[in-house]
Specification:
It contains three helices and no strands. With about 200 residues, it is mainly α. The longest helix has 29 residues.
């Protein structure tokens, strides 16, 4: 066999793989020998940087934040109650060493003559004569009648109820929408004040 054909049949030699030494010398972390070393960035001593592991998902338990909000709301309400109780106790507490005035809680004596009876008495005493007759007396044979006032709407003489106002379909929808918005607004205000529990979260 010729030499040229024999050379074609020989397999090409595989390139030699170079080995990289990942060990870091001690002089790398020495600022005197390596002026570019920054200790704030840390030192890598375990070879090349490996790929960061993917973070796993951490799902939050449903209702966790709702419980935290309810707990904070209850604590705020408790603090408010404590402040109110302290203010009431401070207002009701009597100063030490101060004499208690009985006249502050004892009711006053009734007057000799009540104001509604004074025009009918000659003197300021119930034992005196009464001014029930004469031109200066308020007692007369005349009766004072109030001025009649017409009702805002004419009512049928037969005693029937007034006719009901008939609304159009558009007006009825508008009134129903306004009533629903008003109810929702009142419920939100009651939830904010802590009178009603908050609605549970809607999960699909």
């Amino acid at each position: 066999m010729p030499a040229s054909a024999k050379s074609r049949q020989q397999k090409p030699e595989s390139p030699q793989q170079l080995k990289v030494d990942h060990t870091i010398p001690e002089s790398f972390a020495d600022p005197a020998q390596n002026p570019y070393f920054d200790p704030a960035l840390g030192q890598r001593t375990h070879g090349p940087q490996t790929r960061r592991r993917d973070k796993q998902f951490h799902f939050i338990k449903p209702g966790r934040f709702v419980e935290q909000a309810e707990k904070q709301r209850a604590e705020a309400k408790m603090e408010q109650l404590k402040v109110e109780i302290a203010e009431r106790a401070a207002a009701a507490r009597l100063e030490e060493g101060k004499e208690f005035d009985v006249s502050t809680i004892q009711p006053s004596e009734p007057p000799e003559v009540e104001w509604w009876d004074a025009p009918f008495l000659i003197e300021a005493s119930y034992a005196s004569a009464k001014r029930l007759e004469g031109p200066e007396s308020l007692c007369t044979i005349y009766v004072q009648h109030p001025v009649p006032i017409e009702p805002p709407q004419a009512i049928r003489s037969q005693g029937q109820a007034p006719a009901q106002l008939i609304l159009t379909r558009k007006e009825r929808k508008k009134i129903r929408r306004q009533r629903r918005l008003e109810q929702q607004r009142e419920r939100r205000e009651k939830v904010m004040l802590g009178l009603l529990p908050p609605e549970p979260p809607k999960l699909r």
